[in-house]
Design a protein that fits this description.
Helices cover 41% and strands 14% of the residues. The protein is of the alpha+beta class and 138 residues long. The protein has one domain. The longest helix is centred in the last third of the chain and has 26 residues.
């Protein structure tokens, strides 16, 4: 008795399961992480929350506002020459020792991605694994 086993190339199998680079599973992971991050970013007017999303097929999460960096660091910044938070165009800014105050829920504050990952990381990974299993079975 002779058994002949023919398989598809590994990259084809990955693609069929949504596991290829920038594939459906990666996009799901990026979107899920970005959706969870929205509850952790600063929320005075809601602009940061609305501008948070995944880009590059789920490879990156971005908070698309010019002040996101200093909001995420949690420290006020001032211009090196003007010593004002409203620095002139092109003026470098430096951090001060003054901590920022965040509005809305207790979840919001400095270093939102790290805090979200600590709180929700395992849940996001579990959701992504379940999504990948549904793709494989469907």
């Amino acid at each position: 008795m002779e058994i002949k086993l023919e398989t598809k190339p590994l990259q084809t199998l990955y693609k069929n399961l949504g596991l290829e680079d920038k594939g459906r599973v990666q996009q799901f992971l990026g979107k899920t992480a970005a959706d969870n991050l929205k509850k952790y970013v600063s929320f005075k007017s809601g602009v940061q929350e609305k501008s948070t999303g995944s880009i590059n097929h789920g490879e990156e999460i971005i908070i698309n506002v010019p002040y996101a960096h200093f909001q995420a660091e949690g420290k006020a910044m001032i211009g090196t020459k003007s010593h004002s938070p409203w620095a002139k165009l092109g003026e470098k800014k430096i951090y001060t020792g003054r901590a920022l105050t965040y509005h809305s829920t207790a979840l919001r504050g400095s270093h939102p991605f790290e805090r979200m990952k600590a709180d929700k990381g395992q849940s996001i990974l579990n959701q992504t694994a379940n999504y990948a299993r549904r793709l494989a079975n469907g």
